[in-house]
Design a protein that fits this description.
Elements (H helix, E strand, L loop, with lengths): L17 E6 L5 E6 L13 E8 L5 E8 L8 E7 L4 E7 L16 E7 L22 E2 L5 E2 L23
Antiparallel strand pairs: 1-2, 2-3, 3-4, 5-6, 6-7, 7-8, 7-9
């Protein structure tokens, strides 16, 4: 049942599949990141997402890594993933609070860009995460965000913070 989470207990949440996609600069791997925790790993209360590593030649998944978000609720999730090199990435985390159709335009706003490093992360393929707990060997995340997009909204929006930031690029 992919139209609702009501009768599902396992796997990705409805409308919460791969949201971030990055290809390493050498073109060897593609990394896809789930928008939020899977149903059996906390669902809307979960704080641990999966990053799946794909071999670009075979298309096969060759690894999975645990990424811990700042929190859950308010539609907390990941919107973008950008490869800086073969092990370091930028991740855009956000919640659904802010200016938007049907959105809660009240704080707290969470729209932050974090730098992560997969070089010491353990492969968690086949491991089920406990609710609200990332397993040992999770992805290393710089605690202080590189950028906080919720500090002030764009002038065109009279300082309001947009509900969703959906993309991130480095050039």
């Amino acid at each position: 049942n992919f139209a609702s989470d009501d009768s599902n207990a396992l796997g990705r949440r409805n409308n919460r599949g791969f949201e971030g996609l990055a290809i390493t600069p050498d073109g060897t791997y593609a990394y896809a990141m789930l928008q939020s925790a899977m149903l059996d790993e906390g669902g809307s209360d979960g704080v641990c997402n999966r990053i799946v590593k794909f071999d670009t030649v075979t298309g096969q998944a060759v690894g999975q890594y645990a990424y811990q978000m700042e929190g859950a609720k308010q539609g907390q999730g990941v919107s973008a993933l950008v490869a800086l090199n073969n092990t370091e990435f930028l991740v855009l985390e956000r919640n659904n609070a802010g200016l938007g159709v049907g959105a809660d335009n009240a704080a707290p706003f969470n729209k932050k860009v974090f730098q992560i490093d997969l070089s010491s992360a353990k492969d968690v393929t086949g491991v089920t995460f406990a609710k609200n707990v990332c397993p040992l060997g999770k992805v290393q995340k710089i605690a202080r965000p590189l950028l906080d997009l919720a500090l002030a909204g764009p002038a065109q929006l009279n300082g309001h913070v947009p509900e969703k930031w959906e993309g991130l690029a480095v050039g």
